[in-house]
Amino acid sequence: MRAFTDERDWAKFHDPKSLVLALVGEVGELAELFQWLPADRAVQLAAADPLRQRVGEEMADVLAYLVRLADVLDVDLAEATRKKLENSAERFPAAEVHGEAPEKI
Amino acid sequence: MRAFTDERDWAKFHDPKSLVLALVGEVGELAELFQWLPADRAVQLAAADPLRQRVGEEMADVLAYLVRLADVLDVDLAEATRKKLENSAERFPAAEVHGEAPEKI
Amino acid sequence: MRAFTDERDWAKFHDPKSLVLALVGEVGELAELFQWLPADRAVQLAAADPLRQRVGEEMADVLAYLVRLADVLDVDLAEATRKKLENSAERFPAAEVHGEAPEKI
Amino acid sequence: MRAFTDERDWAKFHDPKSLVLALVGEVGELAELFQWLPADRAVQLAAADPLRQRVGEEMADVLAYLVRLADVLDVDLAEATRKKLENSAERFPAAEVHGEAPEKI
Lengths: 105, 105, 105, 105
Description:
The first copy, chain A, has helices at residues 2-7, 16-34, 42-45, 51-73, 77-91, 94-97.
């Protein structure tokens, strides 16, 4: 993404707020692919083209902007994710939350 | 994420539509961290804690759900992203789009 | 929202990109309330407090920022919505799309 | 939106999770219209067509799905928004927060 951006002189557009908006745009396109699918058949329906291809493309766009944001902010995304997952593992002990969705209210 | 999910018996919650909604929730938390920052000072302000720490955590959550969705859908996210970037490179030739934001209207 | 904003001298934060990010934050909170609910029981589960109360609050936040954005951009949101719905009615004739989800791929 | 939906027999697609995903899709399209605009020129750039027209359409789509969700959930959106704004007014007394963005960390 850094090379892609620099070759096009697009770094000047890539302040964090703009990149988050771009990420939102791609998440929106991903959401549109699933919005009207029956929840219990979505995996099956997304297993075949052309939906499979489109889902991969939109997930790729989300990752591309996330990685680009990490670069702009000098965040080590892999390390941050490992740490966050360790924290979540401590915060939600398997024995206590087994089979129950974490409360979001 | 697969191990984390299975240890908690949470796979039953992870249909694609639910995971996209969870992804949206995390993108929303990321957006909130930047929403009122001056655009031209966001990089600098996000370089110091506590914002730096919080941004890393929310980006991690976004990646975690994206990776989990890829697992559920059996999508090779790295490969999809490489392909998409190659396609974007062809679609936006550096010489033609140099220094100009791609039209979104 | 205009009075609320002016009384707090917050108009300086309300450029369109910041307001869209704030809108995204509220949509993210709304998404979190529904993410792990079974799709076929969501209406029923959201009919009782405390979820009912929380859903109303997050929907209110979404509307508040949307209305504020309309004010900042001098958009007549009610008129724009009437027009868009008329356009959608022409674009999707009832006889042609009856019972079928509009294609999003 | 209710008439529009019923005429097309689309109510069966409008469970809350699907509607929130549709809302996310429209917010994503709105975000895309602003993502690469300079923050300090966005109001001016969105004041002229074709951007003005497009922004109105995407804001309309956001409102349409929000109103439809309110209908499905039997939420009085106007009343919820008035209450929420009153609560926010108490939570953020003008004298205390004057000129300062509310902390989001």
